[in-house]
Write a structure and sequence with these properties.
The complex is a heterodimer of chains A (about 60) and B (about 250). By secondary structure, chain A is an all-alpha fold. Chain A contains three helices and no strands. Classes of the chains: A mainly alpha (about 60), B mainly alpha (about 250). Chains A and B meet through helix 1, helix 2 and helix 3 of A and helix 1, helix 2, helix 3, helix 4 and helix 6 of B.
């Protein structure tokens, strides 16, 4: 009984960790795309110097 | 749970962005402004009132008031001066948060904690994958440099990062010989394939300026990534140790 409770708790935590990992991957990729790769003029102009400094392909 | 990780991501991004913004202001943006002056002088289609570039004096203020007239010149652009510095620092912080989120995502997905002790190591691995490996094929660029098709470069850049990161993960976690060989193949493959090459003979920016920019950019990124890793480790150690319990 105890063992079963523990194992169900741990698998729940692990799957939540994976879910959080994918959510963060999405957030991080979106932020990085917006600053570094998006071709929108305003995004390009505002982040221009940072794009060059970080080494994103720009222009 | 994810809220605590996002807090760590934001703190790491802001800390790294503030330091990066300062480094950019002192060491990188002046070189970009200088390159833009060369770019304008070398491009007959650009504004005629542009200052003639003078290698000894980094141009600032008045002569640079149209600092964004190259290619996508439409739309709002920050004015040179505090607006440009602020936009650059804010975008550095956003980039820092983006990188930190992806570093934390890798840590959560593979189940390897980022801690106070190993945070800088995580950051340096990020530096290897995101800065150093792509820089071998596509060195950080200055405005006015000749370059291949933008989309092709972006694809190669993203692919190189993914392959290098996968290779580093294998080296860090596996011991069998074939996985190490696979890691070496993953890390070398993008360079065997080769980055999209720039056409020759179109550069308007002196090589000496480019060399200084590339060296300063790579060094700045090493610091940027170390701070991202260190802060992620510091904050996650305090708030989210239990995440990795399983």
């Amino acid at each position: 009984m105890t063992a079963r409770t523990i194992s169900s708790t741990t698998s729940l935590t692990a799957s939540r960790r994976i879910a959080a990992g994918f959510a963060l991957l999405f957030i991080g990729a979106t932020l990085t795309f917006a600053v570094g790769l998006s071709s929108m003029a305003v995004a390009h102009n505002a982040a221009h110097d940072t794009r060059h400094a970080i080494g994103f392909p720009c222009h | 749970m994810i809220g605590r990780v996002i807090l760590a991501v934001l703190l790491a991004g802001i800390a790294a962005g503030l330091v990066m913004g300062a480094i950019q202001h002192v060491r990188l943006t002046p070189l970009i402004l200088e390159a833009e002056a060369f770019e304008r002088a070398g491009d007959p289609a650009s504004h005629s009132h542009a200052a003639t570039p003078d290698a000894g004096t980094p141009t600032t203020g008045q002569t640079e008031s149209d600092g964004h007239d190259h290619d996508h010149g439409e739309g709002w652009a920050p004015e040179d001066g505090w607006q440009r510095t602020l936009a650059t620092t804010a975008s550095a912080a956003m980039t820092g948060a983006g990188f930190a989120a992806m570093l934390a995502a890798v840590s959560l997905l593979v189940g390897l904690p980022i801690t106070r002790q190993n945070g800088v190591m995580w950051g340096l691995c990020g530096f290897l994958a995101v800065t150093l490996a792509p820089a071998v094929g596509l060195p950080p660029e200055l405005p006015g440099m000749a370059a291949a098709d933008l989309f092709a470069r972006q694809v190669w850049w993203v692919g190189t990062i993914a392959a290098t990161a996968a290779g580093i993960y294998l080296i860090a976690t596996q011991t069998r010989l074939w996985t190490l060989v696979l890691a070496a193949v993953l890390i070398m493959a993008p360079h065997v394939i080769g980055a999209p090459m720039a056409p020759h003979g179109e550069a308007m920016v002196p090589a000496e300026l480019v060399a200084r920019f590339v060296a300063n950019s790579i060094a700045a990124n090493a610091i940027f990534w170390c701070i991202i890793g260190l802060f992620l480790g510091l904050v996650l150690d305090r708030t989210a140790k239990d995440i990795y319990a399983t």
